[in-house]
Amino acid sequence: MLQSFSELLQKAAAGPAYRVCIAAAEDAAILAAAKMAQERGIIDPVLVGDADRLRALCAGVGLEGCRVLPCQTPAECAAVAVEAVRRGEADVLMKGTINTSDYLRAILNRERGLRGGSLLSALAVYEVREYHKLIFCSDSGMNTAPGLEQKVGILNNALAAMRRLGFAKPKVAALTANEMVDPKVPATVDTQALARMAAAGETLPCVLEGPIAFDVAFDRAAAEHKHIASEISGDVDLILAPNIETGNALGKSWLTLNKAQWAGVILGTTHPVVLGSRSDTAQVKINSIALACLLAREGERGPAA
Length: 305
Ligand code: COD
Known about the structure:
Mean pLDDT: 95
Shape: globular
Number of domains: 2
Number of helices: 11
Bound molecules: dephospho coenzyme A
CATH topology of the largest domain: Rossmann fold
Strand content: 15-25%
Order of helices and strands: HEHEHEHEHEEHEHEHHEHEEH
């Protein structure tokens, strides 16, 4: 079971170098991350963007020997990078200095995208100092207001990815504002349905509780105080967010106020896809690259038993 980002980087470095195609790569932090990942033997970067600017920026960070695919606009960069992955000229797609929605639209393109035939979803992983293990969270980056069917897809995508990382039966908090099922609060009805489906074995294996509020999910004393019997309280692996705002704000609060680290990927695609934020540090970008590469490698080994 993956415990930390340092372990993630070690594991990714122990495997083959993947050709990572970066859409709109003209950014010093991205190229610094690409160089770090190249030096560790994790990736062989392919850069998409303005060739002159890329050459100057690569010289600035000491990144050498990369293939460059010249492009001008961010939308063009996304399309060219996706096409390079589709043609087998790269193994992994990575977001550069491009708006997330534009990047996702290139991936979702029916004829020329990387759709895998089912729901695509974003998975984020956080290393928060005050918590004893990694926290996975989905979906805080792609599906904005998922209904029950989409939530099942988001859950199964996350569980399949976590399985590849050694989590056989993750503890899942299907997050809401409290523990009461109330028809006027649709998220509580959805989480109750999800808990029933998980208990009946209708999802990939997990221990899912919901509706459950954040304090009960992460603080056993809060659960005891509220007289809530919980198998997951204080030991959650995965947060299933009711909507994009909740997951996104939760993650960003850890990053800004707790100096947490994170990694982000898109799941359900035909090829591994890195999803990060333009404001991420080089260290965070390399975490995301390593996560996508490790998931790719474990996926090539076939589904976990
Ligand atoms: N999985 C599979 N197919 C999908 C998905 C999905 N998650 N989302 C949309 N589709 C398909 C639809 O079925 C349809 O065929 C086509 O794609 C277009 O669907 P729309 O019209 O709903 O999609 P768009 O293009 O308007 O928006 C899709 C985005 C993913 C771009 C949009 O939902 C979005 O911007 N999401 C939030 C991104 C974001 O801001 N993240 C936070 C910052 S990290």
